[in-house]
Amino acid sequence: MAGCSPSRSEALASRVGSNRACRSSGDAALVEALRSGDEDAFRELFQRKSGLMKRIARGFVASDAVAEEIVQETWLAVVNGIDRFESRSSLNTWISSILINQARKHGVRERRSTPFGGLGSHTGDGPSVDADQFEKEGDAWPGHWAMGPRPWHSPERRLLSLEAREHLRHALGQLPERQRQVVGLRDVEGCSAEEVCSLLDLSEENQRVLLHRGRSRLRASLDRYLAEEAA
Amino acid sequence: MTAPREHVEEISCQEFVELVTDYFEGALGPRTQNRVEEHLVMCHYCETYAEQIRATMRALRALDDEPPAGEPSPAILAALRRRREDSR
Q1: For site-directed labelling of A225, which of A27, A152, A169, B18 has its Cα 20 to 30 A away?
Q2: How far B62 CA lies from chain A's nearest CA (Å)?
Q3: What CA–CA distance (Å, rounded) separates A82 from A41?
Q4: pLDDT in tens, A68-105
Q5: Which fold has domain A152-230?
Q6: Which of residues 62-81 of B touch A (CB under 8 A)?
């Protein structure tokens, strides 16, 4: 994995469009404030962005503690490197690209020191729904639902409970690494497909495949959770 | 060889659950898009499945509320201080 050279970060960042997570607004004033070491302006930015950054980092590494470390390293690189920011991309996108480079370096290090499977680096490409949920060859309607998906009653209320959110957070953490990164950026952070492809160096098709596998697994996980909770 | 029958073009539910993301992403070709839409009109189960994927996406979106991660490290504060001193 390439390190976080500013030129690479800028090149990467400039390919990324704007969105909620990576949006440009009042960059010039903020860049000036960072260049002059304005602590209040920095703290405001830190408060606003660090939670989001931690979740993105968490897509690359196995623990909250390491993700927090990555966020701190990223901010240090931002403060030290702000003179090299050339406004070819938004400030947020530039920061995101630094974050992802830092996170990747940690991710590579963690994989080297993790003896087996703990990071879920397998591709996990089973079917989205177990084959036994569908009618078989020789049945009346092969390939069609045998019983149909279990209905979810009042999903909006139940899925927003603290417990359901914890369950989902845990399930997201258990996804294979690439799926976790893509689902985290797309569905939790609200980044666009184009941005995720650029930030993670993925083709559009691979991005969709990873998103599909991740979402399908999480649906299945919530389905089990809701069934158990109702029992 | 058997002659093609009209329902050869239909997609099955088992195919639908693998196409649902491409469908949401607008990444299907027009022909497959039509087949998926026709299937959804007819298949209450797949409609339910698609809605569960949407509910999963909404639940994921709601995870976006973690509090910020602590305080800036002393190294960051020192780097800011150096910048302030340099710009004086």
Answers
A1: B18
A2: 7
A3: 14
A4: 999 999 999 999 999 999 877 778 778 888 998 999 88
A5: Arc Repressor Mutant, subunit A (1.10.10)
A6: 62-70, 72-73, 75-77, 79-81
